[in-house]
Amino acid sequence: MIDENGKISLPPDFLRRNKCSLIESNEQVTQNNTKCPNCSRVITTSEVFTKSCSLENGIIIPAFDEIGVIIGKCSDCNKDFGVNVINPEFAEFNGGAEKVDYYFDTDCETKKDLYKDLLFSSTKVQGDEKLNQHYVNYTYDDYPLYVCNKCSKNLELLSLNTFKNHFDRFNNEHYNYVNWSLKNGRGQGPEYIIVKLSVECTCGNQCKSFFFKKYVESFNVEIEDFSICNITGSRKINEIISPGVYSKDNSVSWLYKLIPRWTLLFDKVYIITPFIGHQWLKSAELMNVWLELINRLDHKKSKVVLRYGQFSNFKKAYSKENKESYDRLSEFDLGSDLLSELKQANDFHAKIYCGISQDDCEVFSGSANLVKGKSMEVMHFNKYGKFEDFNKAFLSPLGVKEDLETNFNAYSLFFDSDNEFRYFGGKSEIRCSEYKNVVLRNGN
Ligand SMILES: [Zn+2]
Ligand SMILES: [Zn+2]
Ligand SMILES: [Zn+2]
Question: Which residue from 23, 89, 319, 401 could staple onto 325, CB 3.0 to 4.6 Å apart?
Fold first, then answer.
């Protein structure tokens, strides 16, 4: 049992039986996409890698990964095929096929023989998280969207500090909810987490700040994941963004604060701009300008309209900066969900950013496209009470068709500081039809 280096060597049988104890966290799971070798349908597989672990008596059990094969039945063509994997007993098909068998390369001559005529999928491609994450990154800078309507103080910073002071309390309640949800998992999960805070301005003005983030069933939650979507007691946005000239830095900052507000409170968010970045940006910079935008947009609610040629500039930049080309990721269904529905048009120079619903639309428009900088732009903020009027003024002339379908079943978790953030007891879920009433008007 002791090898030539004096290390303990355990028989493979023993290691295989105890492999489970070498698998502790989700970080040891990798997901890849491949294709069915019979019909080319995209198939998602997951594999688990082991990690060495030390026992209480000091003995270290080394990592023990075995190569092998999983056999799947394709859900499109119903034919069987093989995929080479690590640890076939734990490898799974997460989409596109069903696992019907597996074997280890080191043994099972009978199975190898049984499957010797089977086709194998040849290429595995791993997705890139940065293309499909939702990361709002609210910046508490010198361009607040929410200031006190009595004394003009920046309410964003004040709200952030209040949230920090109450975060532990909120986090406990959030933990309790996730714990309960994991045990009692029901149908459709919530779309967002909304947090309401009572904030008193230094002038005495009583305000309510609303923060939100996309819901993920995880105990981990950071204050940086949240963005402000409204503060009651603040000045009206059309008084903050009065028609006028503002720097690109200022315009982009406001846009990045309007996007989270629109995402929660409106049915759809539109980003219409001829250009993202500009032609002098290096590939890494151009890629980052794009990622900064698409990571802020909830792809289920957002549409992007650009001039022809822009998307191919991004694809070129992305492919230069990453191991897999963008087209290859797309071929394996691993491109950005948002960009797969990108609309392209010719002959327009308008920049229109908006949140729209049937009975309310907010539009931020003017000359600024999506790039930061010192140069000056002219910008406006307008409200429309009817989608019809907004559509006639902004979307129709550009040939953009929008049906505005609402997901009426959507709901969010609601944690209210006035109720000690308690999830159980009190109003703790809000239907999407109530978001505006609660968040804009502080209704109950
Ligand atoms: Zn197939
Ligand atoms: Zn004040
Ligand atoms: Zn998605």
Answer: 319
